[in-house]
Amino acid sequence: MGTQALCTEYDLEEEDPFFTSDVEKVGRSRNTYEHQLRKRRLVLGVAIGVGSVALVALIIGLAWAMGHRKLDYICPSAYDTTRPNLVFFVVGDWGRSGNANQRRVARLMGDVAECLPPEFIISTGDNFYPSGLSSPQDPLFDASFSQVYTGPRMQVPWYAVMGNHDYGDNVDASLLNSGRCLAAPPSAEACTSRCCISPWWQTVPDLAARDLRWNATMGGVLTRRFKLGVAGTLDILFMDTNPFIQSYQNRSWSSFLRGVSSQDSQAIQAQLQTQLNASVASGSSWRLVVGHHPVRSYGKHCMEDDKNNCDDMQFMRPWLRSYRVAAYINGHEHDQQLLKYPEDQVYYVVSGAGSDTREGEFDSLLPEKRANALFLSDAQGFLAVVFAGGTMRLHFYTIRQRGPAYTATVNRPA
Ligand SMILES: *[C@@H]1O[C@H](CO)[C@@H](O)[C@H](O)[C@H]1NC(C)=O
Ligand SMILES: *[C@@H]1O[C@H](CO)[C@@H](O)[C@H](O)[C@H]1NC(C)=O
Ligand SMILES: *[C@@H]1O[C@H](CO)[C@@H](O)[C@H](O)[C@H]1NC(C)=O
Q1: DSSP string of 350-388, one letter each residue
Q2: What is the chain's mean pLDDT, rounded?
Q3: How far, in Å, is the centroid of ligand 2 from the Cα of 250?
Q4: Are 147 and 99 in contact (CB under 8 A)?
Q5: What residues have CB less than 8 Å from 247, skipping those under 6 apart?
Q6: Which of 18, 100, 194, 288 is the most buried (most CB within 10 A)?
Q7: Which residues pair with 394 in a beta bridge?
Q8: What's the 247 CA to ligand 2 centre distance in angstroms?
């Protein structure tokens, strides 16, 4: 009651703020034109302020998002916190001029590399479809390699072995019939003015000079040694398996420059045995062997009787066992597999899903026909290998999962 009385008795201009109550102030000022104006200005001001802040936040957010594209894939570090001694990737059967499937895997690799940076990347072969490189200047090298694996964390050495397509399998016969490409060049010199398809171009310095990451081997076995800190050393033997596949010997491409018919499979066997032996003798703690063709596989190259690559490669099994090789890693099958046989400590790893895969490849395999498979996948993907805490972890990534589709922890063979 008292407040209403005050309201009528006081001149608004002369009011003493000490004598007006809150209720009165609100009730009165609500009706002043000045207040309406102030309120509008305030609302406008707040709106502009909020709008500006939002705009700035949006711009900063967009800039950040462009610089740090959200990763679609989960890092193993989210659950695997042991500090790695060595990380490397394995990818196979990829070089398809950057088609959609190849780019999908390249992006997956680039994303995983952001949180699990590899020291190097292994290619299990079929680097350049359809039939390898025809010279050290072949533009396929850019289209299938340099322009595809552009992730900032993939600018590391690429250690590649050769696949049958690198040797010229699937060559377009018209290239040979028209005389554009030489089917049986007498020497490398004959190739300076003519097209010659050859895996050898992948190993020459002219090619490596085009992309310093590239380092390929062919026609033999090469051991590379890597340090694992307190866990010792890892020897990886890179092997050319093409000369062992019987059915390649009389193909149209067998007589290409340094083709399979000019390779000496006996000599390669001897190199493999000597280098495995040397690795064991030197006390290296871990050994892996990398080749293109499978020694064991549930894919089509070993399940179809007429062209069973695993029969041709069978000589490897006792050696892998006796020289205590932790895993044999190959491509050729356009899928990913991890096989472990009870009689054998060796893990058989297929990583050949770098571009086009064979969807449904394993669908008709009855459980008893795949009894030794720990993991089979027909999806595109790659393998991340992590040495940490004295073990080797194999993270199989596919484009279908946000994290590794399968992880195996492998102990050092006793
Ligand atoms: C490739 O690797 C071999 C063996 O480690 C090395 O000797 C050679 O210099 C490398 N080549 C290039 C081009 O990096
Ligand atoms: C080579 O080709 C001939 C005929 O094309 C075939 O009969 C023979 O079995 C082939 N040899 C090998 C080792 O594949
Ligand atoms: C393996 O190495 C040992 C020495 O450590 C040697 O006596 C033996 O002859 C070698 N065997 C082969 C097959 O190279």
Answers
A1: EE--SS---TTTTTT--GGGGTTEEEEE-SSEEEEEEEE
A2: 88
A3: 6
A4: no
A5: 307
A6: 288
A7: 385, 408
A8: 7
